[in-house]
Write a structure and sequence with these properties.
The chain is an alpha/beta fold. The protein is built from nine helices and ten strands. Helix 1 packs across helix 9, helix 6 packs parallel to helix 7 and helix 7 packs parallel to helix 8. The two termini are about 30 Å apart.
Amino acid sequence: MELTTLISPVNIRNMFEHIIFSHHDTETRQIFYEVFSDLGYKVNTVLSHHDVLNTFKIERPQYVVLDPKISDVSAEETACKISSLSPETRIIILDPDKDKTLVIQQVVKTIRENYTVQDKATSIGGLKLKANVLIVDDEKESALLLQKHLQRKGYNIDIAFSGEEALAKLKSNTPPEIIFLDIHMPGIDGLVVLKEIKNHSQSTKVIMTSAMEDKAIINEAVRIGADGYLVKPFNLDQLETMIFKSMIKDYL
C-alpha cells in the first residue's frame, strides 16, 4: 500500500487564487500541479500557449506562467495578449535554462511578491528547495533506496540508522532542512525523536515514515508538528513533490 499525505493546513487565501501553468516538460507540469494544488491553489496545466489563451478567456486566473521553449505562440506575444485582456494578471515568463526546482522557486517568488510585508513577514530569500535531507531508518535497505533516489535528483543526503544518531546529527555544522523519519525503530521511537527535533528547530521539516497507516499515530504526529506522512513502500515519484510542498508552504 502506498500513501503520501501532506498534513499541514492549507492557507485559506490560496483557495481563491488560480494559476495557468504552461511548460514543455510533462514531469515539471505534473510536479507543479501536485505541489500548488495541495497548497490550495486552483491550477490548470496546458501544453501550448494557444491553450493558455483559450483557457485564460474562460478562467481569468491571477497568475499565468509561460515557457519560452513552447513555440506555437511566443511567450512575449502571449503575454501581450493577456495583458491587453487583463492588465492586473501577473505574468511569469520562465527562464528557459531553469530546471523544475528553479521553475517552482521563480513562481513562488512572484506570488510571494504580491503579498505585503504585514501579511507575511517571511522572506523569500530564505527559500531553498534543494535541501539538505536526513533519512532516519533502522532498515538499511529502505534508507539506501531513498538516498539513491534523492541523490539522483541533486539533494545532499545523510543517513541515521537510529533516533539517537539522528538527534546527534541535528547539532552538526550542516543540519538538515528536511527529515524523513521512521516511526518504529529500536531504542528511541520516531515520535519522541520528532518532538526533540521540533524542540530544537521548528523550521526543520519532518516527514514521518511507517509500514503501517495508523490513524492514532498520524494524529499524534500532526499534534507534535510533523509536515507529512509516508507509508512504505515508498512512491519514489512523489518524494520530491513532498519536499517541495513542505519547503514552500511557509512562504505562501
